[in-house]
């Protein structure tokens, strides 16, 4: 778990995201209709965005618990919520990029925008996993 929180993991996720964007850009040239790819990226991003909003709603709903109060006092609650919001923002940017790639007419810009959406989606997936691991810790400690 400590590896996920390290700077090496963040740097690795940036390189993987850039690599995924490049590979997406390179492979989009052979597709007949790249709008299907853009639609898929937008759907995945929007679905994960919905999951994050649900987890934030759960955190707000249980804010009267003693454990959540202690998280607020120690500052961990703010870190968790800010990470959930930043991940949600990245997913929203990815969805918007994918939708923009869906409507752009020029083939070069369409491929560039969709590969950027792919890169942002991969990076937000890394952040999503990290936020999910932290949220799991909170839920498991609440159950005890």
Q: Strand fraction band?
A: under 5%
What's the pLDDT, averaged over the residues?
A: 84
Going by helix content, strand content and strand pairing, the class is: mainly alpha
> Rough shape?
elongated
Runs in which pLDDT lies below 50 for 5 or more consecutive residues are none
Secondary-structure element series:
HHHHH
Describe this structure in words.
The protein has 5 helices and no strands. It starts with 6 loop residues before the first helix and ends with a helix. It has 144 residues and is mainly alpha-helical. Helix 1 packs antiparallel against helix 5 (107-143) and helix 4 (76-103) runs antiparallel to helix 5 (107-143). The protein has helices at residues 7-27, 35-61, 66-74, 76-103, 107-143. The longest helix has 37 residues, at 107-143.
List the helices and strands and how they pair.
Blueprint: H1 7-27, H2 35-61, H3 66-74, H4 76-103, H5 107-143
């Amino acid at each position: 778990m400590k590896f996920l929180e390290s700077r090496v993991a963040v740097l690795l996720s940036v390189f993987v995201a850039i690599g995924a964007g490049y590979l997406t850009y390179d492979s989009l040239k052979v597709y007949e209709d790249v709008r299907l790819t853009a639609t898929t990226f937008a759907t995945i991003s929007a679905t994960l965005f919905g999951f994050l909003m649900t987890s934030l709603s759960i955190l707000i709903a249980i804010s009267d618990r003693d454990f959540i109060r202690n998280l607020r006092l120690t500052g961990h609650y703010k870190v968790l919520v800010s990470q959930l919001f930043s991940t949600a923002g990245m997913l929203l940017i990815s969805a918007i990029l994918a939708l923009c790639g869906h409507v752009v007419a020029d083939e070069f810009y369409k491929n560039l925008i969709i590969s950027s959406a792919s890169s942002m989606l991969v990076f937000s997936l890394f952040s999503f996993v990290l936020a999910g691991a932290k949220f799991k810790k909170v839920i498991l400690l609440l159950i005890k």
